[in-house]
Amino acid sequence: MTLPTRIAWVFPGFGVGGAQVRFCTLANALGGACAHIVLSLNGDLVCREKLSSGLHVAFPDPAHRAGDMRAAILQARRFLRAEKPDLVVTSNWGAIEWAIGARLAGVRHVHTEDGFGPEERTAQLPRRVLTRRIALRGRAVILPSRTLLRIATQVWRLPTKNLHYIPNGIDLARFGGATPAELPPGEGPVIGTVAALRAEKNIGRLIRAFAAVRAAFPARLVIVGDGPEMPMLQNLARELGMAHDVHFAGHSKNAESWLAAFDIFALSSDTEQMPLSLLEAMAAGLPALSTDVGDVRSMLSEENGPFVTAIDDAAFAAGLRAMLSTDAGGIGEANRGKAKREYSLDAMINRHAKILGV
Fold first, then answer.
1. Whole-model pTM above 0.90?
2. Ordered alpha helix ranges (H), 2-140
3. What is the secondary structure of 126-172 as a DSSP string?
4. Domain 5-169+344-356 has what CATH class?
5. What is the largest CA-CA distance in the chain?
6. CATH of domain 172-342
7. Element (H, E) at 38
8. Is 258 within 8 Å of 181 (Cβ atoms)?
9. Which pairing describes strands 163-165 and 246-250: parallel, antiparallel, or unpaired?
């Protein structure tokens, strides 16, 4: 009997985000071929709700020592030597100590990079560049955006033979005919976003843009997600007199039902690479207003191009005003068509599986 491949997946946190959702998609597709050890370094395990029942998945406490890089590396080495997984997959800078620990433990290692926090929004930090250059050399690195591929090649100076550009994939059937979520009473089109409420998502920009156009365009704003910025954002909506027009839906297991209820999807981030939420919105047939971050402009259909704005409050508000003045139904159809043509879920799964060796 062939034993399943044991893979240790190391995430800075296992809340709902692009990297975590992609892992769940892969794990569900691979089924019994793998046994997974999921390490959430901050203890958040919310995304486990997206895993199918019956999978071999363990969630041990990694005893991670945040802020003490040397201690964290040694802890990672001890853990991996004791567990002896067949493969370690690390995610983003927040798991870099485990990338080094895997090297010291002699365990096969793959790294995935999905983007950066606000501290690296405009430029790479030199210390982190050097650490990545050392820790990831000779390792397979999976990147979902061409922007990241350029950074890994030109800034981190990693060998191109080890870099694998694999765009995220999407299940169009899941987002094509979902039952819309129930919305609070109100008039006009529904502008919505699905996001972790963290600083780099800059949901405040979206609320301010909505406040700027609300007098001219009766509409509703729905924010789906949770995170540390929630209290500040709720207070901002109140200060702008939008308390009854902005609906905070909180965390939801069913993004597809909310997307089915939206008329316009909005992404107001300061930094992204290939945002899964935008890909889901495309699969749902929505027009999108977005800041010009990462691969967003190339992800969207040509028809949606005029509504990709500068990373600026005024430009974003102007984009929202223009979109509310436009019959955007054809733009949504074009986005769904591009998602169908270029972002195959099966292709993504198969390419990841090949690199993972499963």
1. no
2. 18-30, 69-83, 96-105, 126-135
3. HHHHHHHHHHSTTSEEEESSHHHHHHHHHTS---GGGEEE----B-H
4. alpha beta
5. 67
6. 3.40.50.2000
7. strand 34-40
8. yes
9. unpaired
